[in-house]
């Protein structure tokens, strides 16, 4: 006769240890462990070990508790979605997401009197596979988004955005992404809703809460890879804002890089040295980590260059990738191409930054030699571009490198006309290519900053002494194509894109920009010299602030080129604006400028016609030694204050608070006439 199997008490069974309880004795005495620890020793005929909750189960339970707290109902109560009082984990069987909008739901399990039918279960659907699983509605800080709009935003993201920079696994559905990371889920929603025409409020509502959710997710220190992926998405397709001061892309990009190094993505393999448990040598995991690190490197360099900031940890980003050669066949060709592009850009920026750029008397020969070397590397790499958009991004990076030509002394030894002409043609081609591609896809790889830089380069060159060697008609057309591009990619009224477009139009129509106190036009120099290639753009923003924002120029040491607000040449009432255009133009032009009397008469007879087209004949192309001798000029007009005395950034202007709704009513400077000194609302522009 077989000996009956001994049973363990509940406590010992939970701990999986040997139990010495005498189970046949009734009532039985406590086992040695329970007696020693003062525990209740129980023997159950069907005792089973209670398994721990998985992370997904705990996340769903936490989400349900939060919903119960918001609605004020007791835990465990089962109410439907009407009135937004139900748990988000209700069974969605019978729910038709194509028939209801955000915030309004119906469920056949809920009766008209509010009671719940017996077939209703308060649990999430357990079907496997995303094809037959209904997308659940989700909420972020009280804003409820139904399943249909979630599906629409996910479809837009994976069709229009994700192929341009493949970071995620497209086989997962919305529910799987939410269980993986709520922050990653909402990052996809924010990006996919950028061009969601059925409900523009989705972008406005979700973008308000995504940044706090991003920082909260980073603080949790859990599921770091989904957090890194969400941060990269928000850095690639930036959250719309009306001020560069409010743009968090640079901070989130740095966080993504540092989180990546913290879990060892910069090391080839599975990152065993960065965890406490043995890891399985999984080839798929190696490929995933290598691809994600490639994305981090690309976006980190791209974000820094677009913001005019030195790339952080350049030695880390430019590490030797030979130990990843076995990953090359498994990585997308476009990512490999972009990685090579931005590594060359990184090396160029680091090398050029060491040529004493802060001084106008830097070694021009070394500067131009370095620019030529790295630009030739870019040209050689461009022949292997997988797609047209990849070639466009390479050309944008070339503009950032070639823009360093403006750091050279404008007259000593003189401008490099051939190199600047090539830069001029490149800017025209980039703008035309961007305008063409923006109609085909929703790309945004810091492209707005590159297009802005290209437009300002064209403006500087058409006002320079080499303008006679350039196709001015093509340049003017490309400049206004850039303005149209920025307007077309605008997502909200008065955002950065729209404001930049207004600034560019103001500066193009201005005859005071680049004009020195003695009337000489000098556009090839730089006053602001610490923002890499983007110094050109930030310098142009200061020209705009000085003329149209009534702000003092901090870079010319008292040599004011623009009349102050109390100067009689500036109009002081709306009635005087159009009548004083011709007078202002006459008082600001040098005596030898060729202004036709017919032009003056036309302005007086029809004051509604703004002066928007630049006339090259109004600019003296060659410097007049009698007026200004550049041979003895020490560059005092372009020397900025010492480095420690400068603002760390231009965030100081962010204290001006102007809503988006007020921006369209603001005067557009020279587009509608000179600015009114008493209405300086557009000083709130905080470009930089």
From TrEMBL:
**Alphabetical list of SMART domains matching this protein:** GAL4
| PROSITE patterns associated with the record | ZN2_CY6_FUNGAL_1, ZN2_CY6_FUNGAL_2
* Primary localization: nucleus
Q: Give the record's keywords alphabetically.
A: DNA-binding, Metal-binding, Nucleus, Transcription, Transcription regulation
Q: Which InterPro entries match?
A: prtT, XnlR_reg_dom, Zn2-C6_fun-type_DNA-bd_sf, Zn2Cys6_DnaBD
The Zn(2)-C6 fungal-type domain extends over: 8-43
Matching CDD domains:
fungal_TF_MHR, GAL4
For the region Disordered, give the residue spans: 67-133, 556-577
- Keyword Metal-binding appears in the UniProt entry: yes
Enumerate the Gene Ontology biological process terms: DNA-templated transcription
Which Gene Ontology terms of cellular component type are present? nucleus
Compositional bias annotation for Basic and acidic residues: 567-577
The entry lists its GO molecular-function terms as: DNA-binding transcription factor activity, RNA polymerase II-specific; transcription cis-regulatory region binding; zinc ion binding
Instruction: List where Polar residues composition bias occurs.
Output: 103-120
Query: Where, per UniProt, does this protein localize?
Result: Nucleus
Q: What is the protein's given name?
A: C6 zinc finger domain-containing protein
């Amino acid at each position: 006769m077989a000996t009956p199997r001994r049973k363990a008490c509940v406590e010992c069974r939970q701990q999986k240890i040997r139990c010495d309880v005498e189970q046949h004795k009734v009532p039985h005495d406590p086992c040695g462990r329970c007696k020693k620890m003062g525990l209740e020793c129980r023997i159950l005929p069907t005792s089973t070990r209670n398994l721990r909750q998985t992370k997904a189960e705990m996340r769903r339970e936490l989400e349900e508790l939060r919903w119960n707290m918001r609605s004020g109902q007791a835990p465990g109560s089962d109410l439907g979605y009407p009135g937004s009082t139900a748990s988000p984990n209700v069974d969605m069987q019978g729910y038709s997401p194509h028939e209801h909008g955000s915030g309004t739901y119906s469920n056949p399990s809920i009766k008209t009197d509010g009671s719940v039918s017996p077939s209703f279960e308060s649990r999430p659907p357990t079907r496997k596979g995303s094809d037959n699983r209904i997308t659940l509605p989700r909420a972020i800080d009280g804003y409820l988004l139904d399943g249909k709009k979630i599906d629409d935003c996910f479809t837009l993201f994976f069709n229009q955005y994700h192929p341009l920079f493949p970071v995620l696994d497209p086989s997962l559905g919305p529910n799987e992404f939410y269980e993986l990371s709520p922050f990653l889920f909402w990052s996809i929603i924010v990006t996919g809703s950028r061009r969601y025409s059925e409900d523009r409020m989705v972008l406005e509502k979700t973008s308000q809460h995504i940044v706090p959710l991003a920082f909260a997710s980073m603080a949790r220190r859990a599921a770091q890879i989904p957090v890194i992926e969400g941060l990269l998405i928000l850095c690639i397709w930036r959250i719309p804002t009306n001020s560069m001061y409010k743009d968090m892309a640079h901070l989130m990009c740095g966080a993504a890089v540092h989180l990546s190094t913290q879990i060892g993505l910069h090391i080839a393999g599975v990152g065993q040295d960065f965890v406490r448990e043995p890891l399985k040598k999984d080839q798929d995991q190696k490929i995933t980590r290598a691809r994600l690190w490639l994305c981090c490197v690309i976006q980190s360099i791209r974000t820094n260059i677009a913001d005019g900031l030195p790339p952080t940890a350049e030695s880390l980003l430019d590490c030797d990738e030979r130990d990843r050669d076995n990953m090359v066949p498994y990585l997308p060709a476009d990512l490999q191409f972009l990685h090579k592009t931005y590594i060359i850009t990184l090396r160029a920026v680091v090398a050029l930054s060491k040529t004493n750029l802060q001084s106008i008397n830097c070694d021009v020969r070394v500067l131009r030699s370095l620019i030529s070397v790295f630009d030739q590397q870019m040209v050689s790499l461009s022949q292997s571009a997988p797609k047209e958009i990849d070639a466009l991004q390479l050309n944008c990076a070339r503009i950032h490198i070639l823009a360093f030509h403006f750091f050279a002394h404008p007259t000593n030894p003189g401008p490099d006309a051939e190199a600047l002409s090539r830069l001029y043609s490149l800017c025209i081609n980039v703008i035309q290519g961007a305008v063409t591609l923006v109609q085909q896809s929703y790309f945004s790889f810091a492209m707005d900053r590159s297009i802005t830089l290209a437009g300002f380069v064209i403006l500087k060159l058409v006002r320079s002494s080499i303008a006679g060697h350039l196709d001015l008609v093509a340049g003017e057309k490309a400049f206004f194509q850039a303005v149209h591009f920025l307007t077309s990619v605008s997502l909200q009224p008065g955002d950065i894109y729209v404001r930049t477009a207004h600034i560019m139009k103001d500066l193009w129509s201005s005859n005071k920009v680049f004009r020195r106190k003695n009337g000489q036009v000098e556009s090839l120099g730089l006053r602001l010299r610490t923002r890499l290639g983007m110094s050109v753009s930030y310098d142009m923003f200061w020209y705009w602030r000085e003329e149209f924002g009534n702000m003092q120029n901090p870079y010319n040491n008292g040599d004011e080129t623009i009349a102050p607000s109390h100067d009689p040449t500036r109009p002081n009432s709306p009635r005087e604006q159009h009548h004083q255009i011709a007078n202002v133009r006459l008082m600001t032009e040098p005596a030898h400028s060729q202004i036709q009397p017919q032009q003056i008469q036309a302005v007086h007879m029809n004051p509604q016609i703004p002066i928007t087209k630049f006339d090259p004949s109004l600019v003296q192309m060659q410097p007049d030694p009698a007026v200004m001798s550049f041979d003895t000029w020490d560059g005092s007009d372009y020397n900025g204050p010492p480095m420690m005395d400068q603002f760390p950034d231009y965030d100081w202007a962010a204290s001006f608070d102007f809503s988006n709704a007020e921006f369209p009513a603001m005067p557009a400077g020279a587009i509608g006439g000179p600015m009114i000194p008493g209405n300086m609302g557009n000083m709130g522009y905080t470009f930089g």
